[in-house]
Design brief:
Layout: E1 6-7, E2 22-28, H1 36-59, H2 65-86, E3 90-96, E4 99-105, E5 111-117, E6 122-126, E7 134-139, E8 142-146, H3 154-171, H4 174-177
Parallel strand pairs: 1-8
Antiparallel strand pairs: 2-3, 3-4, 4-5, 6-7, 7-8
Helix pairs in contact: 1-2
C-alpha cells in the first residue's frame, strides 16, 4: 500500500434490494475454535483445579495465593467473553451487475453500509500468503478493506472469489440480468 488513500466513507442507508442476479452473496464471520459447550467445560475444569490448588496453598499458610487463582479464572473468563463478543462481527458482500454492497455488522450492533460501482472497482490482494495479507476494494482513489478478520490463508481466496464475481458481473449485459 503506497501513498495514503482516502478511505471509503459509509453510506447512510442501503438500497432496499438488488435488482437482478447476484454474482456473489457471501457472509463472512470470524472463526471461533472453542464452541460454547467446550467453554463451559474448560471453565469448570479451571475453576476446579484453581479451587483445589487454592485450598492446598491456604492450608500451607500461603493465604493470599487462592485470591490469585481466583483472579486467573476471572481473567480467562473475561478474555473468552471478549473473544466471543468479537465473534459476532459479520461482513456481508453482495455483488450485482451494477454495484457491490458491503454490510459491516460490528459486535456492538452498529451497522455500516458501503456501495461501490462494479464497473470501476478493482480487487487488490496485498501480501498474499503473509500474516498481514489484506483484500482491498479500490475505486477512484478510495479503498475498502474486507475480510480483515479472516485467517491469512483465507484472505487471498476471498480476493479471488470477489474478482471472479466482478468479472462475471461485468460480462453480463443489462438486459440479461433484468436490470436497467
Amino acid at each position: 500500500m503506497s501513498a495514503p488513500i482516502e478511505t471509503l466513507p459509509p453510506v447512510a442507508a442501503l438500497p432496499d434490494d438488488v435488482d437482478g442476479t447476484l454474482f456473489m452473496d457471501a457472509i463472512l464471520a470470524p472463526h471461533r475454535s472453542l464452541p460454547n459447550p467446550g467453554f463451559v467445560i474448560l471453565m469448570a475444569v479451571l475453576c476446579g483445579v484453581s479451587f483445589v490448588a487454592g485450598i492446598v496453598y491456604w492450608r500451607m499458610g500461603a493465604w493470599p495465593v487462592p485470591f490469585f487463582f481466583g483472579l486467573d479464572v476471572l481473567l480467562v473468563w473475561l478474555a473468552f467473553k471478549i473473544s466471543y463478543r468479537d465473534g459476532r462481527r459479520r461482513e456481508i458482500i453482495r455483488i450485482a451487475r451494477d454495484r457491490i454492497l458491503v454490510h459491516r455488522l460490528h459486535p456492538n450492533g452498529a451497522v455500516r453500509h458501503f456501495v461501490l460501482p462494479t464497473g470501476w472497482t478493482r480487487v487488490i490482494v496485498h501480501k498474499p500468503g503473509l500474516h498481514d495479507a489484506a483484500v482491498e476494494l479500490a475505486f477512484a482513489g478510495r479503498r475498502l478493506l474486507v475480510g480483515s478478520f479472516l485467517s491469512p490463508s483465507e484472505r487471498p481466496d476471498l480476493g479471488k472469489a470477489i474478482e471472479k464475481a466482478i468479472i462475471r458481473a461485468r460480462a453480463i449485459p443489462a438486459q440479461e440480468t433484468g436490470g436497467d
